[in-house]
């Protein structure tokens, strides 16, 4: 009988095994327009948002920024920190991939920042289809 490698059972792996690089990190005081420009230049669909101390506060997607910009109450002074749903949630690199994906599906999140014990962004876990 031959045993399968751990990678044959991805649901048993950790978030650290499945996460992608954090990608571009931007500050909370960045405007929506500038964030969209950074996203376009980096050819990515999300940005990790950090506070003035460099700690991860959340993640913002192109879809969310576009929805904010297309709202009738939009002004060019809206900053990422003004978008309430940019804050959290996060996942530990030690959590199991299955646990993280269940939580993401419950919350209807396509991606989740992976942070260490100090709030530093280590990567991003994208939901698998």
Notes on the structure:
This protein has 129 residues and is of the alpha+beta class. The chain has one domain (10-126): CBS-domain (Roll), CATH 3.10.580. It is built from four helices and six strands, in the order αββαββααββ. It has helices at residues 15-18, 32-42, 62-70, 97-107; strands at residues 20-21, 25-27, 46-50, 56-61, 111-115, 121-126. It has a three-stranded antiparallel sheet with strand order 1-6-5. Strands 2-3-4 form a three-stranded mixed sheet. Helix 2 runs antiparallel to helix 3. The chain starts with 14 loop residues before the first helix and ends with a strand. Residues 1-9 have low confidence and may be disordered.
**Nearest-integer average pLDDT:** 86
Strand order of the biggest β-sheet? 1-6-5
CATH class: Alpha Beta
Based on CA atoms alone, the radius of gyration comes out at: 16 Å
Main pleated-sheet profile: 3 strands, antiparallel
In CATH, the architecture is Roll
CATH topology: CBS-domain
Shape: globular
Tell me the distance between the termini.
31 Å
Low-confidence sequence ranges: 1-9
Secondary structure: number of strands? 6
What's the helix count?
Answer: 4
How many domains, as an integer? 1
- Fourth CATH level, the homologous superfamily: CBS-domain
The SSE order reads: HEEHEEHHEE
Structural class: alpha+beta
Roughly how much helix do the residues carry, as a percent range? 25-40%
Strand content: 15-25%
């Amino acid at each position: 009988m031959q045993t399968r490698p751990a990678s044959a059972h991805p649901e048993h792996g950790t978030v650290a095994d499945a996460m992608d690089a954090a990608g571009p990190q931007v500050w909370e005081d960045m405007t929506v327009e500038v964030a969209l420009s950074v996203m376009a230049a980096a050819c990515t669909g999300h940005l990790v948002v950090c506070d003035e101390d460099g700690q991860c506060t959340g993640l913002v997607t192109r879809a969310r920024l576009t929805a904010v910009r297309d709202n009738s109450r939009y002004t060019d002074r809206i900053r990422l920190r003004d978008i309430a749903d940019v804050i959290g949630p996060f996942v530990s690199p030690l959590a199991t991939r299955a646990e993280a994906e269940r939580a993401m599906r419950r919350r209807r999140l396509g991606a989740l920042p992976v942070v260490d014990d100090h709030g530093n962004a280590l990567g991003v876990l994208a939901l698998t289809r």
